[in-house]
Amino acid sequence: MTDKAKITDGMSDAELDARHAEKMKKKKAARDKILATKTIEKGLLIVHTGKGKGKSTAAFGLVFRALGNGMKVAIVQFVKGKWETGERKVLEHFPDQVTMTAMGDGFTWETQDRQRDIAAAKAAWERAKALIMDDEHQLVLLDELNIVLRYDYLDIAEVVEFLKGKPAMKHVVVTGRNAKDELIEIADLVTEMEMIKHPFRSGVKAQVGIEF
Predict the structure, then answer these.
(1) Which residues span the membrane (predicted)?
(2) What is the reported pTM?
(3) What are phi and psi of 95, to 5 degrees?
(4) Which of 93, 116, 120, 138 sits CB 3.0–4.6 Å from 71 for a disulfide?
């Protein structure tokens, strides 16, 4: 029997409820004290990386949250240009709030043309820079930017320097596995998705509504 079980053993429901309420009261007071010190408002640089599934999915969750709060959002997809995704179909219903640009020609192993990939990456980056610097959008999603950075299709130093100088209140979200250390260093929030299991390894193909 654990110490916690010994303490609560034999207590009535009313006593347990009262003990729980007192514990939660102390926790709330401690939480409120911490929250009172958090006064900075700023646009965040957010990075979703890692080998696990869900990087873009989580980023689009932020997009939908922003839309629900009346914000305007821009999306630049670096390597998923040919994909007809469920997210894109939903976002088409918000033409006044969403600017969506699919610049990629597919994944690099599909095009098998390095110069074409580099040209597409550079075009997408120029579009991304314009969207980040404008006064119209509050959040910009750079979907799979980490992929083109991984293959050195863009200069990481130039990308980092630009993102460090983004408008103070602009949120920028970057997705893709193998995020470079330089990008992680300047980010405000970094989440690494870890793969525990994936159905693809068991022969299951990409499923509608799950992968796209």
Answers:
(1) none
(2) 0.85
(3) -65, -25
(4) 138
